[in-house]
Amino acid sequence: MNDFFSSLEIMDYVWCFVIGGLICVIGQILIDKTKITSARILVLFVTVGAILGGLGIYKYLVDFAGARCNCSYHRIWI
After folding, report:
1. pLDDT score for 20
2. In angstroms, rounded to a whole number, what is the distance separating the alpha carbons of residues 78 and 70?
3. Is 52 exposed, middle or buried (0-12, 13-18, 19+ CB in 10 A)?
4. Whole-number Å distance between alpha carbons of 34 and 46
5. SS3 of the chain
6. What backbone torsions phi and psi does residue 67 show, to the nearest 5 degrees?
7. N-terminal to C-terminal alpha carbon distance within the chain
8. Which of 25, 20, 8, 17 has its CA nearest to residue 71?
9. CB of 48 within 8 A of CB of 57?
10. Taking the CB of the first residue and of the last residue of the chain, which one, N or C, has fewer CB atoms within 10 A?
11. Cβ–Cβ < 8 Å for 78, 59
12. 15 near 62, Cβ under 8 Å?
């Protein structure tokens, strides 16, 4: 476990926080400014993620903000 944490740099965590925060901001704006329910926003995000994954774009987002995770969940999308 120490090898995992020592291999990550602090900027990896910062980018994960920034990208995750931007996704949350988009969701919050949709909740505040529209009448879309949070359940439908969740479905929207999952659908957009599936479309981005199908087009091969999601891979670049994971590479950019994925903190270089080596878990099996991460490998599914690459």
Report:
1. 86
2. 11
3. middle
4. 19
5. CHHHHHHCCHHHHHHHHHHHHHHHHHHHHHHHHCCCCHHHHHHHHHHHHHHHHHHCCHHHHHHHHCCCCCCHHHHHCC
6. 55, 25
7. 23
8. 8
9. no
10. N
11. yes
12. no
**Residue 39: pLDDT band by 50, 70, 90 thresholds?**
very high
**61 near 19, Cβ under 8 Å?**
yes
Tokens 């990208």 belong to which residue?
19
Say which residue the tokens 């969940």 belong to: 73
Considering all CA atoms of the chain, what is the largest pairwise distance in Å, rounded to the nearest integer?
A: 46
Determine if residue 18 is left, alpha or beta; phi over 0 gives left, psi from -120 to 50 gives alpha, anything else beta.
alpha
| pTM summary value | 0.66
Compute the residue count for the chain: 78
Q: What is the pLDDT of residue 33?
A: 96
Selected residue with higher pLDDT from 14 and 53? 53
